[in-house]
Amino acid sequence: MWNCDWEYENQETLKQWYEEKLTGIRPYSAVRKIICKACGRVFYTQISTKKYCYYHLCGNRGYQKDLKQRRLEKRQNRVCKGCGKTFTPKRSDAVYCCNACRQRAYRQSVTDKVSGQIDPLPQS
Questions:
Q1: What's the CA gap between 76 and 84, in Å, rounded?
Q2: What DSSP line would sit under 52-89, residue for residue?
């Protein structure tokens, strides 16, 4: 049995040890009271790096929650390269505020490439 499995099944014991730590009966106990980053439930642990009440239940959910928050922080207000307006992108790699600006920029780049490829007719 893994330590995290034992802790999940013995929360009452760990809670008692934590309360004894607070009252001074077990002053050097390593038990900590934590709020699960995924489900928000209060749990007790002796593992110093633990963030989730039970990894198999909340681990992936908590990781996805953190990832979503980090992506949200990356999506700050930006200035559209097409029209110059400030916008909040839906994706972290968005450059244009809307499809119209994106399409306009694409058409402009295509016409610039085509005009650069055409050689002027020689004058006789």
A1: 15
A2: SS-IIIIIHHHHHHHHHHHHHHH---EE-TTT--EE--
Q: How do residues 66-86 score in pLDDT, each as one tens digit?
A: 888 888 887 788 899 999 999
User: Is there a contact between 52 and 36 (Cβ–Cβ < 8 Å)?
Assistant: yes
Which range of 4-8, 51-55, 60-64, 84-88 scores highest in mean pLDDT? It is 84-88
- C-alpha separations of 58 from 11, 75, 83, 124 in Å: 16, 26, 44, 79
Mean pLDDT over all residues of the chain?
A: 86
Question: Which residue type does 51 have?
Answer: K
pTM recorded for the entire structure: 0.53
In degrees and rounded to multiples of 5, residue 42 shows phi and psi of -80, 135
